[in-house]
Amino acid sequence: MPPRTLIAGNWKMNLTLPESRHLAQEVLKVAAGAGPEVMIAPPFTALTVVAEVLAGSEVSLGAQNCCWASQGAFTGEISPLMLRELGCAMVILGHSERRHVFGEDNAMINRRLKGALAAGLRPVLCVGETLEERQAGRANPVLKSQLEEGLDAIPIGAGLIVAYEPVWAIGTGQTATPGQAQEAHAFIRETLAGMSQKIVASEIRILYGGSVNEGNVEALLAQADINGALVGGAALKIESFARIIRHHV
Ligand code: 13P
Prior knowledge:
- The chain has 249 residues and is an alpha/beta fold.
- The protein has helices at residues 17-31, 47-54, 80-85, 96-100, 106-118, 131-135, 139-150, 178-195, 198-203, 217-221, 238-246, and strands at 6-10, 37-41, 60-63, 90-93, 122-127, 161-164, 205-209, 228-231.
- Strands 1-2-3-4-5-6-7-8 form an eight-stranded parallel β-barrel, surrounded by five helices.
- Helix 1 packs parallel to helix 11, helix 5 (106-118) packs across helix 7 and helix 7 crosses helix 8 (178-195).
- The two termini are 13 Å apart.
- 1,3-dihydroxyacetonephosphate binds at residues 10, 95, 165, 170-171, 209-212, 230-234.
């Protein structure tokens, strides 16, 4: 059986506290009884208000990053234990914006992953090539090293979630075609199988992210190796996010 579809909303650095509370309340209504699992990842400062809204519900709370250490002299960082204390179940790690705007490399992302797992958070490891890398025919080697170095010395289990987010598709309106996305997802699954076991890799959810909207989600989710979506811009508009949640296969 394919793993349960996961629709995740990455709010990035958006929304005021009242807006966050309101959007979370709306997501809760839409997610109730919907087929897919739903996760939303607000900015750190809104986690408390969103956690209050989601308490006792089936919608999971996620964070957008976390430190490897549980406490200490790490100015500006947030510990995975602090996220657990707030009710987070998941954490997005290695997002393209962390890699390309803030210079996080595979080694640092690997440390963050280990910290998240040690604290009991389910990591969503983001991988994806830039346009330049794709045009140079280097997409697969880039994905492979992001997976191998990002997951170095980490036992790979079915609880791991991977998100394929081609950098050129993020926030650009230029979605990967279902065929392009499926090809990358199949390669990611094959790579994970090589690092663990085929059966384990078949249970890992691989989400697609990059300009997902209500118009393209169905065709993307119809692909064999696409097990959900990591949604940015369209997760901020409840009408769009609701259609994405409902347009599942
Ligand atoms: P957009 O859906 O806005 O392209 O963002 C995708 C993304 O980065 C989700 O993590």
